[in-house]
Amino acid sequence: MDDLSLPGRRQFGRLAAAAAALAGLGACSPSPQASPPASASSSGSPASASPAAPSPSPSTSATSATATAAPSATASGTLAPAVDSPARQLKRQFPLTDPSSPWVLVNKHHRLSPVTYQPSDLMVPALAGATADTLLRKVTAAAAASMFADAARAGVAMTLLSGFRSYATQASTYNSWLRIHGSVAGADTASARPGFSEHQTGLALDIGDGGACELQPCFAASPAAVWAAANGHRYGFIVRYLLGHDRITGYYAESWHLRYVGSELATDMVHRRIPTLEEYFGLPPAPSYL
Ligand SMILES: [Zn+2]
């Protein structure tokens, strides 16, 4: 797959229609070419169960007490888990704003800093489907290799569809969507803005299974997604964008998008039944860009 090449004008039209119907795909679509076909948006399917578009007003979006807790700041101004955050109780803690931290918080309120950050330890992971275009950080690659191997032993096919995405690639992707939609609001429904994608950290990956539901809502029912949702925490992964939490995370459900946070945090989120990093860290919801 070539993330940088762009489709022709006719294809643009079809893809734009598909994207408009699938508003909120955002976090993972690496390029217009990778967007799901229009049929994926047919009403009546699980895909259409997506909630309403994220509210532009964070103040109306809080759905839990922890989500409304104010973040705390250290003396140096570094964002840290709120005082009442479960993350404060873990043995080891990591900064939320350092882009190389396993806990780095990236959402529509928190852009990577520096915005053009690129990990220094990117590598081609030893995973099914991996190519020179699907780089991951060393720690992510190792964790994913263990997860993929155990999934395979359990009879579950799992492939790597996407990994690290540079600032330049994300900017190119976002700009192509901007041309298609003709507005920032339209582009925002199809792609994360450059500097706001978890894929730029090298800690996020998109999994597939070679089936027709890859990168589509119906992937949630696939053995790969079900297995990853049930077992990913053991390897340090969380499903970052769960169904029904778009008003907190800013994105509709993406059962294929896994984020490495380390097994201690990921396991604690499961045990405490806390579905989003925002809630776990005691940070406000981030339904839209500020
Ligand atoms: Zn993704």
Indicate the topology.
Blueprint lengths: L8 H13 L43 H4 L3 E2 L5 E2 L41 E2 L12 E2 H16 L5 E4 L4 H15 L2 H7 L13 E5 L14 H9 L5 E5 L4 H4 L4 E7 L2 H10 L4 H4 L10
Antiparallel strand pairs: 1-2, 3-4, 5-6, 6-8, 7-8
Helix pairs in contact: 4-5
The chain binds zinc ion.
Q: Residue-averaged pLDDT, rounded? A: 82
DSSP, total strands: 8
Q: Which regions have little confidence, pLDDT < 50, spanning 5+ residues?
A: 1-24, 34-70
Calculate the terminal CA-CA distance, rounded to whole Å: 33 Å
Name the helix and strand elements from N-terminus to C-terminus, one letter apiece. HHEEEEHEHHEHEHEHH
Bound molecules: zinc ion
Query: What's the Cα radius of gyration?
Result: 18 Å
| CATH fold type | Muramoyl-pentapeptide Carboxypeptidase, domain 2
Q: Number of domains in the coordinates?
A: 1
Q: Output the number of helix runs.
A: 9
Helix-strand makeup class: alpha+beta
Strand order of the largest sheet: 5-6-8-7
What is the overall shape?
globular
CATH architecture: 2-Layer Sandwich
**Which percent band covers the strand fraction?**
5-15%
Biggest sheet overview: 4 strands, antiparallel
* Fraction in helix: 25-40%
Per CATH, the class reads: Alpha Beta
